[in-house]
Design goal:
Two copies of one chain form a homodimer. By secondary structure, the first copy, chain A, is an alpha/beta fold. Chain A has two domains: about 75-295, Rossmann fold; about 315-380, Winged helix-like DNA-binding domain superfamily/Winged helix DNA-binding domain (Arc Repressor Mutant, subunit A). Chain A is built from 15 helices and eleven strands. In chain A, the strands form two sheets. Chain A has a nine-stranded mixed β-sheet, sandwiched between helices. Chain A has a two-stranded antiparallel sheet with strand order 10-11. In chain A, helix 8 (about 195-205) links the parallel strand 5 and strand 6 (about 205-210). In chain A, helix 9 (about 220-230) crosses helix 10 (about 245-255) and helix 13 crosses helix 15.
Chain lengths: ~400, ~400
């Protein structure tokens, strides 16, 4: 631990008296340091922006030393800037514009679990709708598994639906996953995820900006979303309805210039409207599997994904004019080279030379009737989807 | 008709002797005109690029005047550049690079049906997999219906799956739709679509670059795809597996700098792999409904689509600090303003003033116990997806 006890206590106090993501408080601390801000606010110094009044509402009974001691007894540590495990990537929030009056790095992070927060430097957020479809939870789990298996911790919010599927997918793959809560790390929200959160606290980490004991509220979800985006190297949105909180996390990832990724789904599903809107506005890159996520969050040149290709048939590799001749060779009877040339619209000499090459490749055969198809795997009739897709880059 | 009979006949002849999309033939015609090219080739003049030899393979029995007369008797017309209904947008193919040796505008277009080809100036191509899912055919039909209802003819290839659904969707909406074939317009491919093609020939148009009687082949599908892209103002790919012919059409749309649109689907479906790849490479814009297609193909500022928004609640329109106070007001009992101020972390005076405003809006009520929630529609517990999504542009 490198932060002084006074500074740590000042941060506990300010975090308890204020609300997470209060950008006024963050500005003061960045300018004057937590100890001075704390002392001045408690001395009743008027900051001129209302922080004084807000903090006064919670002064009665505040006791940061007691809070910190109690937390430590409960296995909860308070990580502050300067600590070895401080995730410095969140400091970028200081230079990021606010969103609905909220922003700035956390004053400190309450943590339950053995995993050091510095290990989140390479983490990936996987977030989405609470009312997810089974399609969404399946994909979230698969993506989280691939990402976690590659050594990138998966960060999410422990909510129903996509969040839960992301945590589970990472755990099932033997990877690490961290929950960031909108309440104290000693509380369980949603209550149904008691076992999941206990497991994460035992094996990985449960993190919150809020002091122990404090419950969820609307603005705490918004502040928490900013923290998920700021802790991670990139954010994947798996399903999000038009008003999903996941879009708020996405907005923070975009503000932080971190890769924002969106998984498409059926255009008929309300749960994919938000992800499609992220793609439509160009805010997010499309990802369809974990490997594509890795390609975007890994250092350039790592985890490159080959584009999906259909099966390539021998005939697809033929030069166009040989294909054209081959298309004119019948399957169920033999015909002369002149008839093939006429059908193909290719000169007789070229046709004969192409037929000889195709014969060497055992694709056509010369019979007593003339030329015919020999390769039994050759399609019987022209099939459009047997074409080689040639795309503009 | 403005093209001379000699020129028209020369184009019939060259189209019969050559293959559609033969870029060598197109270059010669663009340079020397169809009559001179025709006369020189028939006189055995060596073009140095093999066109002469290829054409010679089909010279026996060629009779363009007879072909044209027979076609006209069968209700088929041959439209050439200079005709009033010539779709001049296909001439852009002359200035477009080739794809697998093929390219260039058609020498002429064989048409069956009352609709003038000039009406395709505002048309939209809707194409995709033959082995489509029911999801894909549903969406293709819906998109085609919206596009056709707005007066934009829908162009497709009359194939199974997406093509068929697109034609049907346009017809069901009372709109116009045109099939572009990879065989003569007197033939039916696929044979199962006999009724569909007859209906289109009676009410709209069936179009082909190939002379009547000529059957499908692989390269004719490729040439046909280029024609679909070139005839239309933009191309929508609804479902496409990794090797779908629809990706070939997409490649042509991109080469022509026409809007290329791609419909997302479940990442678990092979039929959406191609559409997602188009989105991933940035070749296509994402579209999720017909209105979004119209926005991209209509003149700028027409058919603008409002982004999808969830329901907005009264509380969402409150300033953040009033929301913060409201979040701290209990639902099932009344509490004093000081307790609310402490929970919200907002100064007592501000809290009181916020409570008074919320009271005026009938969102909270002052009871004998203190303040409590009044609006029965207010959610009981903080729900993340009740947030207003605020996104980076």
């Amino acid at each position: 631990m490198t932060a002084s006890d006074r500074e740590r206590l000042a941060r506990v106090a300010l975090g308890t008296l204020g609300e997470p993501g209060d950008s006024r408080l963050v500005s003061l601390v960045a300018e004057l340091g937590p100890v001075l801000v704390h002392d001045q606010l408690l001395a009743g110094y008027d900051t001129g922006d209302g922080v004084q009044d807000d903090i006064a509402a919670r002064l009665v009974g505040a006791d940061p030393a007691r809070d910190l001691e109690r937390a430590e007894r409960a296995g909860i540590r308070f990580v502050v800037p300067g600590d070895d495990e401080w995730p410095t990537q969140v400091d970028q929030l200081l230079r990021t514009e606010t969103l609905r009056d909220r922003g700035g790095p956390p004053l400190g992070l309450w943590v339950r679990g053995p995993m050091g927060l510095d290990e989140l430097e390479s983490s990936v957020a996987v977030v989405g709708s609470r009312s997810a479809t089974s399609y969404g939870t399946t994909i979230a789990g698969e993506i989280a598994a691939v990402v976690a298996r590659a050594g990138y911790p998966v960060v999410s919010g422990a909510a129903f639906g996509i969040d839960q599927a992301a945590h589970r997918g990472a755990l099932a793959a033997g990877g690490r996953t961290v929950a960031v809560l909108a309440c104290g790390v000693d509380l369980v929200y949603p209550p149904a995820h008691h076992q999941l959160l206990e497991h994460l606290a035992k094996t990985c980490a449960v993190v919150s900006e809020l002091p122990p004991g404090r419950s969820v509220s609307r603005i705490r979800f918004l502040s928490r979303n900013r923290l998920i985006a700021a802790l991670t190297r990139g954010t994947v949105v798996v399903e999000a309805a038009a008003r999903s909180g996941a879009l708020n996390t996405a907005g923070w990832a975009a503000r932080l210039y971190r890769p924002l990724m969106s998984v498409p789904g059926p255009v008929t599903a309300a749960q994919s409207e938000g992800t499609h809107e992220l793609l439509r506005t160009g805010a997010a890159s499309i990802v369809t599997r974990g490997e594509e996520v890795l390609e975007l969050v890994a250092p350039s040149g790592h985890h490159l994904v080959a584009p999906r290709r259909g099966r390539v048939y021998a005939r697809d590799r033929l030069p166009p004019r040989q294909q054209q001749v081959l298309d004119a060779v019948p399957r169920h009877r033999g015909v002369g080279a002149d008839a093939i040339a006429r059908t193909a619209g290719i000169g007789l000499l070229d046709t004969q030379s192409a037929l000889q090459r195709l014969e060497k490749m055992a694709i056509v055969a010369r019979t007593s009737d003339g030329w015919r198809i020999r390769d039994v795997n050759a399609p019987d009739s022209p099939a459009e989807n047997a074409e080689v897709p040639t795309m503009n880059p």
